[in-house]
Write a structure and sequence with these properties.
globular; two-stranded antiparallel ribbon; alpha+beta
Length: 137
């Protein structure tokens, strides 16, 4: 894991940067109703909530990266703010999906964007699936 120094009001903070694929996988699987599978090939791990994709991770890609669903306006803002570390997703709707470079972003931000992706997908589920999800342990 890398680190960078941030100055705020004259105080220096050291912040961690980066996350590996296994750490990302653990965050995904900790969410309610999540399954993992390889529907496309043996190197692209897909995470679904109630059968709907919310995250993908390329297991052999270097640098490590993932694709997450994102609100379109927020997606553009994130791409501008984290230029090169958050980009439009390849082979996905570039309006709704971003690719994150896992080794170039703070873990807290990755977690927040993972939550956002999960919540976007859950909010679009039919009522019956939402009810099933809410009744899971």
């Amino acid at each position: 894991m890398q680190a960078f120094v941030e100055k705020s009001s004259g105080v220096r903070f050291i912040r961690a940067i980066g996350m590996n694929v296994e750490q990302f996988r653990e965050l995904c699987l900790a969410k309610k109703g999540v399954t993992e599978e390889f529907p496309f090939d043996e190197n692209t791990l897909v995470f679904k909530v109630m059968g709907k994709m919310f995250a993908l991770v390329a297991l052999e890609r270097l640098p490590p990266q993932c694709n997450l669903k994102c609100d379109p306006d927020r997606a553009v803002t994130l791409r501008e703010e984290y230029d090169g570390n958050i980009i439009p997703s390849y082979h996905m709707s570039k309006k709704h999906w971003n690719t994150l470079m896992l080794d170039g972003l703070p873990p807290k931000l990755i977690g927040e964007l993972l939550d956002h992706s999960y919540e976007l997908v859950v909010s679009g589920l039919p009522k019956k699936l939402k009810d099933t999800l809410s009744n899971m342990g």
